[in-house]
Design goal:
Largest sheet: 5 strands, mixed
Order of helices and strands: EEEHEHEHHHHHHHHH
Organism: Lentinus brumalis
Distance between the termini: 13 Å
Helix content: 40-55%
Pfam families: MULE
Shape: globular
Number of strands: 5
InterPro entries: MULE_transposase_dom
Strand order of the largest sheet: 3-2-1-4-5
Protein name: MULE transposase domain-containing protein
Mean pLDDT: 93
Strand content: 5-15%
């Protein structure tokens, strides 16, 4: 009934639903703002498993659901799991992929609170080439001393991001996440409020904030992980200029896990797979 009408999909996984140590994936479609279960996948992987195996199984799962229900999604949502992101991209190459807003905020908040770990390598030349006002010498401290990034600093006075700046950084990121050409802004003509101008303004705001406060470490992290040309389309809603998604998070799936575990599995400690499947098919799915 709903397959041909669904335009937004959300995918997420959870643990501790069965005694066989399988990870449970759920694919939900958006219907009038609510999540409709479309399919489930049980997957067990290990560090010794084949590289890319999880992504291959997820792609096959999404393809099977797409072909069975004739789904033509224009938006797909996941957390920051690259296997899920790549599987959606392979199955729906023309859809706009959207990272979950809540997971993005949690990732940034967690990283800003790790005081002693240096950021990954920041390509200042790439940033300056795209935006000439970005100073190529404004780089994290380890790049000025040829030290490897993503390691704990040996400097006892090193601080990745001072606490007073974190709330403002999250506020800025939230603003940039939600901006869209459909939402007018004071002082900006509608014809000038485009996807490109939004990104240019967002990068300028974040860079200026960090530069004025000497937060070279934070800027290096923000560009590399969020504001670079490769990462920006993953999370910024403004990159789909002709439409905007109803869903902003994967909370429909999170709510589904809450219902499954709170209403149907709370009296069962790691049930057998056949019991879990029975509950999913005959008790949970409408």
């Amino acid at each position: 009934q709903w397959g041909g009408r669904i335009r937004e999909l959300a995918l997420d996984s959870t643990w501790s639903t069965n005694g066989s140590r399988y990870e449970l994936y759920a694919l939900l479609g958006e219907v009038y703002g609510s999540g409709l279960p479309l399919g489930f996948l049980l997957l067990r992987s290990s560090p010794e498993g084949e590289k890319g195996g999880k992504e291959r199984f997820l792609t096959a799962f999404l393809t099977a659901v797409r072909d069975e229900w004739h789904i033509e999604a224009v938006f797909t949502l996941t957390d920051k799991d690259w296997s899920e992101i790549n599987a959606f991209r392979a199955t729906y190459p023309h859809a706009k992929h959207q990272l979950c807003y809540w997971h993005c905020l949690r990732a940034i908040k967690t990283r800003l609170s790790i005081l002693r770990r240096m950021p990954a390598y920041y390509n200042a030349e790439e940033a300056h080439k795209e935006f000439s006002w970005i100073d190529e010498d404004f780089v994290p401290s380890q790049q000025r001393t040829d030290t490897d990034g993503e390691k704990r600093s040996v400097d006892p006075e090193y601080i990745f991001c001072p606490a007073p700046h974190r709330k403002q950084l999250l506020h800025l990121f939230t603003k940039h996440f939600c901006q869209h050409s459909f939402f007018p802004e004071p002082g900006i003509p509608p014809e000038s409020h485009t996807s490109e101008s939004i990104r240019r303004g967002a990068v300028f705001e974040m860079y200026t904030f960090c530069h004025e406060r000497g937060l070279a470490e934070v800027w290096g992290y923000m560009w590399t992980s969020w504001y670079s040309p490769r990462r920006w389309p993953l999370w910024a809603r403004s990159t789909s200029e002709d439409r905007i998604s109803r869903l902003r998070t994967t909370m429909t799936v999170e709510k589904f896990w809450q219902q499954l575990k709170g209403d149907y599995l709370k009296h069962l400690k790691r049930p057998r797979l056949d019991q879990l499947l029975y509950i999913l098919i005959y008790r949970v799915t409408p």
